[in-house]
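Reminder to self: tokens first, then the designed residues, so the page reads top to bottom the way the pipeline ran.
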């Protein structure tokens, strides 16, 4: 498998901010759980706050970076522990796309009406691509990926699979 392109997009422009916020949240949650002496009547509140702080810290670390990789076998998008791979034979079309967070309900891994899934990050504007492909049930589905290299990715996918339809005016 030959890697043709790789792009990393960070959720925050400054990774230090992610590590700082995540560390603070983890620290607060662990400190509350380990060092606190609380009356039993309010213990459930303390456990809920601790759980939310620890979970929030883990999520910040996990979803800090999204990576898009194009190989001679297809395209892979990884956002934390979640991955999506589309083989080149299943890709039908690729086009630039203006991502609107309101249509998808925010950033991250989002689903929209029909068979559309978005892997998006905050901070790179509305730059993205829409890939139409056949899913495992051989039905058409769309994958929207945040990227700054819209045309480069679509052109590379077209090189990998010449049957892909590339509409550069589709925005």
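Designed residues (171 positions):
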């Amino acid at each position: 498998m030959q890697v043709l392109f790789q792009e990393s997009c960070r959720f925050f422009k400054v990774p230090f901010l992610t590590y700082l916020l995540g560390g603070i949240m983890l620290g607060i949650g662990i400190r509350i759980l380990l060092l606190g002496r609380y009356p039993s009547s309010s213990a459930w509140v303390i456990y809920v706050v601790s759980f939310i702080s620890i979970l929030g810290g883990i999520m910040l670390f996990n979803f800090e970076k999204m990576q898009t990789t194009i190989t001679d076998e297809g395209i892979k998008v990884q956002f934390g522990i979640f991955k999506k791979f589309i083989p080149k034979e299943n890709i039908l079309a690729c086009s630039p796309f203006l991502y609107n967070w309101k249509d998808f309900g925010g950033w991250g891994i989002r689903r929209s009406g029909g068979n559309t899934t978005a892997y998006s990050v905050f901070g790179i504007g509305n730059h993205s691509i829409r890939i139409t492909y056949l899913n495992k049930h051989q039905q058409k589905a769309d994958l929207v990926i945040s990227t700054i290299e819209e045309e480069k990715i679509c052109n590379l996918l077209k090189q990998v699979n010449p049957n892909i339809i590339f509409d550069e005016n589709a925005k």
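The helical segments are 15-35, 43-62, 101-104, 150-160.
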